Structure formats: structure tokens, C-alpha cells
Amino acid sequence: MKAKFSSKDEFDKIFFPRSVAIVGASENILKAGTRFLKPFLKMGFKGDIYAINPNAESAFNCQGYSKITDVPGHIDHVVVCVPSMHIPSIIQQCVDKSVNSVVIFSSGFSESGTEDGRLLEEEIVRLSRDSHLRIIGPNCMGVYCPSGGVSFRDDLPERGGPVALISQSGGVAITTVLTANERNLYFSKVISYGNECDLRSSEVIEYLSDDDETSIIMQYIEGTKDGSEFLSALKKASLKKPVVLLKGGVTDAGTRAVTSHTGALSGMAETWSAVIQQSGAIQTYSVEEFVDTTLAFNLIKPPQGRNLGVVSVSGGLGVNLSDLAIRMGFNMPEFSADVKKQLGRFINAPGTGVHNPVDMAVTFFGTENFKHVYNQLERDDSVDIILMHLCMEYIVRFKEIIPNLDELIVSAIAEGLLALKKPFVMILPHTIQDDKRKKVENQLLEQKIPTYPTIERALISINHCMSYYEMRDKR
Amino acid sequence: MKAKFSSKDEFDKIFFPRSVAIVGASENILKAGTRFLKPFLKMGFKGDIYAINPNAESAFNCQGYSKITDVPGHIDHVVVCVPSMHIPSIIQQCVDKSVNSVVIFSSGFSESGTEDGRLLEEEIVRLSRDSHLRIIGPNCMGVYCPSGGVSFRDDLPERGGPVALISQSGGVAITTVLTANERNLYFSKVISYGNECDLRSSEVIEYLSDDDETSIIMQYIEGTKDGSEFLSALKKASLKKPVVLLKGGVTDAGTRAVTSHTGALSGMAETWSAVIQQSGAIQTYSVEEFVDTTLAFNLIKPPQGRNLGVVSVSGGLGVNLSDLAIRMGFNMPEFSADVKKQLGRFINAPGTGVHNPVDMAVTFFGTENFKHVYNQLERDDSVDIILMHLCMEYIVRFKEIIPNLDELIVSAIAEGLLALKKPFVMILPHTIQDDKRKKVENQLLEQKIPTYPTIERALISINHCMSYYEMRDKR
């Protein structure tokens, strides 16, 4: 195994290079290289960008050269998007030019399952072995770091955030980032590392666990060549910040699919689950759960226990929420007599209820009631977490009577919830037109109110948070 | 217990009345009665509509009277939205006027938990006992039947469909209808029956099981006064068409919430689950699952087994789909050697894979490839159900190269899937902007392609379908 970066500075340069060269970039937008050059322009990358192509053509005002070694200035980082057979010579050029890091997007290496692919991968590792060059990939998307102006897709936002993502799959990296963005979650650093021929995910975890820009680490992993190094990195990182994992290949069929995807040895599902649990990382099972859980770590305050105080505007949905909560290991305590009495001062129209779940029914019209209800639940010692379930469909229909009712309610809810010391979670289901719902969700998320589309997804996310904090307190 | 309707005609009149009177309706849009009158106008109700209010004011061109008995013509159906204390006298008027059915929206009856409420409910039952009048409610939304021009909310669509819904909760009825509409599912008949003081849900199930407009029955139930009658109706109906249930109060906390909601005796969770399973109905646990499952019964052909053939455009997400499928009891068979060979003729670019799941990767650009892939999976005897997982985020970014790529892909997928004899399901996750995704989802659903937002929700729905067909084949 190759030596690690000798300093944090060298690792930093992967995310904050001063100059980059894109091999395979030209003015032709059909070329993969061009599609990797344009994101740097879109992100406003501040350093020099060079386009490397056979005709030394400039591309989108970036100076063109036919070889990396022809570039006059220094190059920190290279992205390679040309057929695999050309790659050994490019790696040699990177070594000769003292490049710090190279991303190999191209596939056709060990993941192909062919002897040729395996040998080609061995060759590029051998060529770089005695140099400072670190290889990311091959068969990967590479690096996205908004604060460094680095990106691998031109639809990723310039806006950064507190989440880092390490993904063995480029596709999962893209899907995860975009899914997270839709939930107002933004990224500090993303690295898609593919076949992991040189730079290993455990090194990245270690780096990110000390990264001030990052408060939560997400990782999609299919397999690893060194389980004990990975476990050790995961353990150390989990003590410092939450690590949320999505493991690809936790069944035989999934493992088989992994083999033809990144060629990793994904191993036995049971072993992996045990290892992950032992490490203190949180295992999730779908992209949605992966993102939901990260959102929870970002916005939900650590709960002190599993006692929910629920506020609903619909009796039936309050019943359903209670059922789901109990089935998932939460409690729905009875409120104290005094809290019920105080709730009854405001929540007393026909059809309302002041038990847990509180059924506000039509009293949501009095938007000041939200604050009163939340404050009572905040007062009640039996309640650890406050959940609000909002049915937009009961509100939009009253637009005729109070045209801006939904805005009034959203701001009343936000104001009420944000004043609480206890953790709170909002559930805003996909009942009505997605565009209206989306607007309200964005408003809530922008105000740092953790908002989920279904009851189950909210509860699973809270559960994951609690497991993490319980584990950390024990260690 | 009161006698049932003596003929189907009388039951029909609940959904297809020739004339209706709304008690509490006026020109004042703040009045609940007015909010129940306007939906009839919006639906283009063809018969006479009367507004009953103390001043005999007309409302929105509907003739006003101060009493039901003052109306000169016959009245089939009455909706009552006035405080509960006035209701006995209105019921007496309905009896005197030989009204067929009355919906009591008002609450303040047995669900209130008070002795007064209980007595008031007893009184209205007593007043109507010897008449033909059937009472729906109290504490309910009543009836929605697009083909009859009847509705209880002015945002419910005029478009009808094959689904019937019986709901003890008015709120759940509204939420379910609107959630279903968003998924292109429309309704034949909806009845929200609240406290069930007279018309019982078992009678409605029996009626709907013979209703030609209805091919799937949904029911939200919190409790019932006659379990054996309910079970018997459910059993008979399940043999004729799928019955999808959402039971409110399957835990102690849920049961407690039910008590303050409709006052029903929701009973022990275990008993209920056993009863439901025994009946052949399908039990679901959230509004989303309730609607997802109904969508499956509406659009997925009965599968012959649990062997999935999966097509994906992302390796990593194909891996995740395989994992989730196996964990949920499905199989991911190996394709036959010949099918793999034939797949390889089209799906052969770097990064693609012709195992199960098929990873089309960039070959989705050749939109004709979708049809080739589906046809191979149709040919393979080991495959029972074809699943397509589409990541819109890989497609939208190529708009620069092929501006109408997403339209081309959607029509290629639709054309390919609709030509299949085997059942197929589409998964279209919420990764990118909801409005773009929604447009594509609508296009697919309009073409009768069952489309789900997450892998889990698709698989749970398929599972429910299979359980139903297996049960029915056994009986």
C-alpha cells in the first residue's frame, strides 16, 4: 500500500488546488473532458485551468496543450477523461510534472472484471508509486468542493454547507448531493473514489473527521480492500462527528451487482452490519434514508428521550402518527393535568382534543395558538421531542377567507418552534400540489426547521440520531 | 340496530340524489353550511339545491327556506352544518319530509365523551328509527361522488375513477382523496361516516362490493360497534375486489387518540390485525402506503412470482435496489446466458452491465435501447416482474446536447413498458426539482404506468398486491 499524504496541506490541495488540467477537454461539448471542465468555470474556480487535448486547442478560454508536461506553470490537480488505454502515459506525465492529485473518470480497469483491466490498474499504481501523485479512482466522478471552486457536474450548487460525502459510486454521489440539495442540505466536500486503487476512503474519513468545514460525514461504500483500517477510521471519526453510512451490497444479489459495478469485494452483509454498528456509524438502507438522517443530524437537537409530544391539525392523522410512533419504539406520554388544562384555554373548539396528540382542528385559524401549544409541550416534563404534523390541505382551502393564511401559519409555526429549547420536528406530507408544498418546505428548511415528507421518515431519522448520541455517550 | 336500506335504489340515492338541502348555508362564506353548498355548485350538481337558514335567504342562486319542511319539492339528501343542539329538530324535519339520507357534519355527540353528547346521539337515532331516513355521521364530512355531482369540499375534482373510499375520519378522507389525486387516482364514491350512529361501514362495503363503478375499495377505520358484521362484509368484498385498509388505533396510544377523535372502540391491535388478515383485506400503516397500495391494484398486472428483473441507469442505485428487494422477500434471478448475450448487443458501453440489475449507464442516450432491454426481460422465464429505476438527474443535464432528451426517454420507456405482457413498475425518485419530476410522473401515470417515488414504496406495494392475489387464489 502506498504511503499516505505526508501533510494535511497536500490533502487540502485535492479540494483547494491552485491550478487544474482537464485531459480530454476541448470546445466539443460531447466530450466527457469538456463536461468536466465546464463545472470549474461555473463554480468560478480562481486558479488556472488548462485543457489538454491532441490538438492543443483552447477550450472556453482555457489555454490548450497537447500534453500535461507542455504546460508552463505548476499543476496541482488533474482530471482525466479519455479511454483507459491512454491513461498510463498520462499518469507518467502527471508524475513528471509533480502533480499533487489526479482524478481518473475513465472506466475499463479492475471493475471490468477482465485481466486486461486489472493489469492496467496495476500499471498506473506502479507508475505513481514512488512519486507524490495520489490517484483518485479510476472509475469515479472525483471531487466537488464549493469553497474551493471545484466540481464534477455543472448543475451542482456554488452554495456550500456542513456535510461531507465520500462515495464509492459516482452515480450515488450525484444522486445524494442533488437529493440533499432539494432538502436544503449543502456540502463542504464530496469525493467519489471508485475503484480506490490508491487514495483510500479511510484516509478521506480521517481527513474529514478533522475538517472544520464538515460537521457530518456521509459515506456510500460497496467494499474495501482493508477492513481493519476502514473500521479504525470510522470509529475515530464517529467519536468526533456523526458518520452516516449507506452500504451497497448487503445481500447476495446486491453483492453480485457490486461486482459488476466497482469490482469491490463487498463481503458478507452480516459482517458489515456488525462492523458498522461496532464503529458507531449509523447504517441507512436507501438514498432517502441516507439524506433524511443527515438532515436530522444537521437540524435536530439531541433528544433526551423517546417521549413525543405531538401536535396535529387532523384527528385521524394524529391517530396514525401515534400508531407509527409506538410501533417504532417511541412513547406518547399523557400530558400533565395542568398542561391539559392550559391547552384547553386555547384549544377548545368542537372537534379539538388536548390529549397527546393535540388535535388543533380548526383552532389553527388562530395562528397565535401554535405558540401557546408548543409552549405547553415545552413545559411538560414528560415530553422530550415535539412533533408537528401539518396538513396543508386543510389550510389552502381557506385562502378565500384569509388569502395569506398559509404564510401566516408557516411563520407562526416557525416562530413558535424556533423559540423552543426542546428538539422539534416538522412533518409536511405530499398531499397537495408539489409546488405549493415545496415552497412551504423550503421556507421551513431555510429557517432550520427539520422537515420531513412522511411520518415514518421523520421517526426513522429521529431514531438514528438517538442511536448515535446514545452510542457516543457510552463510549 | 336499524333496518338496512330496503333496496339498492335507496342506497344509490345517497350518491345520486335528485335534490339536496344544505342546512346552515347562506351567502356568508364563513359559515360551514356555505362551504358544503359550494361544492355542489362546483361539481355541476344537476338537481335542485336548497339553502336552509333562519332568514330563508337564497344562497348563490339556490332558493332559501327557513325549514326543510317549507321546501315545496321533494328532498332526497340533506347536509347539516349547525351546532349540535339544533340537530334533533332538523332530524324531525327530515323525517317529516321523507328525506332519504342526511349527513351530519356537526360534532358534539358521542365522540365528545360527554353524557350530553351521548344522549343527543341517542335522541337523533330514536327520532329516525321508524322512518326511511338514514343518518350518515354525525361528526363526518359525508359524501363525494363525482358522477353524481356530489362533493363535500370545493377542491375535489370533477374527474371520477375506479376507487371507492369509506373513512371513519373526515380529515383522513380529505387527505386520502387529495393524496390519491396527486398520483392520478380518482374516485367513484367516497363516504366519511364519523360516529356511525346509523349507517354502518359494513353496509357501505357490501354496497360497494357490488358497485360497477368501483374496482378497488379503500377503508380507513378506527373502530366498529359490530365486529362480526364488519368482518363478514370485508370477507365477501375481498373475494370480489381488493379492499385496502388503514386501521387507526393499532397501539395503545393510537387507541387513546381514537377515543378523543371519533369515540369508537378501536379495540386491541392484535385482534384487529388478525381479523383483517383473516378477511383477505390488505392492511396498510400510513396514508402514503394506503394510496401506494391502491395505485398498485389499479395499475400493476397480477405478478406470477417474486422474481424481479431490474433495469437501472445507475450502477450504485441498482445495487441498492437489489439489496432492498432481497431484504423485502423478492428474488433477483440471474438472467439466462442467451438473454445476457442479447442484452450485450445493445448495452455494451464502458460502465454498463447486463447482469440483473441491468445497468444501462450512458446507453440510455440511445432511447431505442429501453425497448430492447425490456423485451429481453420479457423473454427471460426467470423474471416475473420488470422494474425500471430512472434517475432523472442523469438525463436533465444532457439537455444542452439533446434538448428534448427527457421527453424522448419518457416516451421510449412508456412505449417499451406498455408493450409488455409481464407486470412492470417504475421508480422515479424525488432527486431533482419537484416540478420537473412531477411532470414526468404525471405523464407516466396518465399512460397507466405505475410510478413510485422510492424503491421501498414500490416494493411494499407489489408485496401487498401479491399477498392479495395469493389469498384470493387460495380461497
Short description:
The structure is a homodimer of 475-residue chains. By secondary structure, chain A is an alpha/beta fold.
What order do the helices and strands come in, and which of them pair?
2 copies of one chain form a homodimer.
Chain A: H1 8-15, E1 19-23, H2 32-42, E2 48-52, E3 64-65, E4 77-80, H3 87-96, E5 101-104, H4 115-128, E6 134-136, E7 142-144, E8 160-167, H5 170-182, E9 187-192, H6 201-209, E10 216-221, H7 227-240, E11 243-247, H8 252-259, H9 269-279, E12 282-284, H10 287-299, E13 308-312, H11 315-327, H12 337-346, E14 358-359, H13 368-379, E15 385-389, H14 392-396, H15 405-418, E16 424-427, H16 434-446, E17 451-452, H17 455-474
Parallel strand pairs in A: 1-2, 1-4, 2-3, 4-5, 5-6, 8-9, 8-10, 10-11, 11-12, 13-14, 13-15, 15-16, 16-17
Antiparallel strand pairs in A: 7-9
Characterization of the model:
The structure is a homodimer of 475-residue chains. With 475 residues, chain A is of the alpha/beta class. Chain A folds into 3 domains: 8-136, NAD(P)-binding Rossmann-like Domain (Rossmann fold, 3-Layer(aba) Sandwich), CATH 3.40.50; 142-299, Succinyl-CoA synthetase domains (Rossmann fold); 308-474, Rossmann fold. Helix content of chain A is 42%, strand content 15%. Chain A is built from 17 helices and 17 strands. Chain A has helices at residues 8-15, 32-42, 87-96, 115-128, 170-182, 201-209, 227-240, 252-259, 269-279, 287-299, 315-327, 337-346, 368-379, 392-396, 405-418, 434-446, 455-474, and strands at residues 19-23, 48-52, 64-65, 77-80, 101-104, 134-136, 142-144, 160-167, 187-192, 216-221, 243-247, 282-284, 308-312, 358-359, 385-389, 424-427, 451-452. In chain A, the strands form 3 sheets. In chain A, strands 3-2-1-4-5-6 form a 6-stranded parallel β-sheet, sandwiched between helices. Chain A has a 6-stranded mixed β-sheet with strand order 7-9-8-10-11-12, with helices on both faces. In chain A, strands 14-13-15-16-17 form a 5-stranded parallel β-sheet, sandwiched between helices. In chain A, β16 (424-427), α16 and β17 form a beta-alpha-beta unit. In chain A, α3 runs parallel beside α4 (115-128), α12 (337-346) packs antiparallel against α13 (368-379) and α13 (368-379) packs parallel to α15. The radius of gyration of chain A is 26 Å and the shape is elongated. The two termini of chain A are 31 Å apart.
